[in-house]
Write a structure and sequence with these properties.
Largest sheet: 4 strands, antiparallel
Order of helices and strands: HHEEEEEEEEEEEEEEEEH
Oligomer: single chain
Strand content: 35-45%
Number of strands: 16
Strand order of the largest sheet: 1-2-3-4
Radius of gyration: 23 Å
Shape: elongated
Structural class: mainly beta
Length: 242
């Protein structure tokens, strides 16, 4: 055990420095890196490009979305694949856990959003309504709403319990690529290829603000109070989202 520890330890590791040289009777040694890698786990299983990842709130699960049309659930501690969620018929572009971890949403180029039970791996709901690939999904903090963003230039709000479409938010003039709820759930932000960010009232479906200033595609928005306050104060920001 002592000898194998030295042989496989990185060249500048404490193990090598403290324990000394590799025993002379070991004739063949592996090529070792200079230092320990920062990589904790390498999760392998997907057979195509992986597009997105998301942790559950308690950190016990990691979800990944791939072009191989599957969602995989992993144990971050062991690196083991826990579930392979199959059902989408095209690339999966985004995943999001509900705050209580009871649901996982996935968005796909098959124009659907699917809801899964992360514990059993069973599909709970298939949300249909978009007429083009779906790029993003986001749960409200209380889990009562799910937002989805699509190439069809709309944002849809769904009831995760019933699977019913609650609101269809129209106004963007190009693909919508990201959505995010404010912490208190009073606002929903959407980012689009039309170079704008729009703020919506999730309850009424009404547009609250149209934020212009970007000169290229808007790729993301984040549910941070400071971000929302800045947008409301100045609807023509010229700085990138952070």
């Amino acid at each position: 055990v002592y000898s194998s520890a030295i042989v496989f330890a990185p060249q500048t590791s404490i193990v090598r420095n403290v324990c000394g040289r590799v025993p002379s009777w070991i004739r063949i040694s592996p090529i070792t890196p200079p230092t320990w890698s920062l990589e904790l786990q390498k999760l392998e299983g997907h057979t195509a490009t992986v597009n997105a990842v998301a942790f559950s709130q308690d950190g016990s699960l990691l979800a990944s979305a791939s072009y191989d049309e599957t969602v995989r659930l992993w144990n971050p501690t062991t690196g083991q694949e826990v579930q392979k969620l199959e059902g989408h018929t095209a690339a999966v572009s985004a995943v999001a856990f509900s705050q209580d971890g009871s649901l996982l949403a996935s968005a796909s180029s098959d124009e659907t959003v699917r809801l899964w039970n992360p514990t059993t791996g069973q599909e709970v709901q298939k949300l249909e309504g978009h007429t083009a690939p779906v790029w993003a999904v986001a749960f409200s903090q209380d889990g009562s709403l799910l937002a989805s963003a699509s190439d069809d230039e709309t944002v849809r709000l769904w009831n995760p319990t019933t699977g019913q479409e609650v609101q269809k938010l129209e106004g963007h003039t190009a693909a919508v690529c990201a959505v995010a709820f404010s912490r208190d759930g009073s606002l929903l932000a959407s980012a689009s290829d039309d170079q704008t960010v729009r703020l919506w009232n999730p309850t009424t479906g009404q547009k609250v603000q149209k934020l212009k200033g970007h000169t290229d595609c808007c790729l993301g928005v984040r549910p941070h109070k400071i971000v929302f306050f800045d947008y409301i104060a100045n609807s023509s920001l010229h700085t990138p989202l952070k």
